[in-house]
Amino acid sequence: MTKSFNPKKNHLLASLPDAEFQRWLPKLELFELSLGKVLYEPGVTLNYVYFPITAIVSLLYEMENGASAEIAVVGNEGLVGVSLFMGGGSTPSRAVVQSAGHGFRLSAAAMKDEFDRAGPVLHLLLRYTQALLTQMAQTAVCNRHHSLDKQLCRWLLLSMDRLEGNELVMTQELISNMLGVRREGVTEAATRLQVAGLIRYSRGRITVLDRPGLEKRTCECYAVVKNECDRLLPPILAK
């Protein structure tokens, strides 16, 4: 296994005690997360949980008319598929790769077995789930009460926290689907951020030029999500 695909580049896996990590290692399967790949659909029983290392996955709710909105993002800080070990087996949301890369996956049977062992793995996974639920709740509040500019800043910051580097490969159409707004609105918001010198947007690539500036421009929702993640999870997860 090459260094670039080291499972410990996923911070949740890196936070496992050594004995647990060594037990998991033979069960982890390297998996390509291509742009737009659907990891699970609403109501479908999950066969795997996924641990991204260089990709970002969006958790989305889709309405009957086809409209959708993102409820959370998952990257190298965590895992996709918490409903598997929380007892539900499936979820009404769908998981779609929003930024391509790689990750590792663990079978449903292996994940359930590890969770049922209790001990440090159970507590780590429950704390991660609480952090994820906080992100979902704060996203709902943000989408209801804050401007699109602030939502876009929050979304960019959360994405940057879950990737190495400062660049996202993402079209405005995809961003509009994630935020549940018109594409024209995303264009206007991105243009304002670019004029302010905070980002550079070109041909589906967004480069963050001034992260402190984004943090000043966003709403309190970003800090709430980050602080809760830092509080609940081991220090290695904090970026």
UniProtKB/TrEMBL annotation:
The protein's name in its UniProt record: Cyclic nucleotide-binding domain protein
Stored InterPro entries: cNMP-bd_dom, cNMP-bd_dom_sf, Env_Response_Regulators, HTH_CRP, RmlC-like_jellyroll, WH-like_DNA-bd_sf, WH_DNA-bd_sf
Residues in Cyclic nucleotide-binding domain copies: 12-133
Pfam families according to UniProt: HTH_Crp_2
Domain HTH crp-type: from-to ranges: 162-210
Domain of life: Bacteria
Organism: Collimonas pratensis
Keyword list, A-Z: DNA-binding, Transcription, Transcription regulation
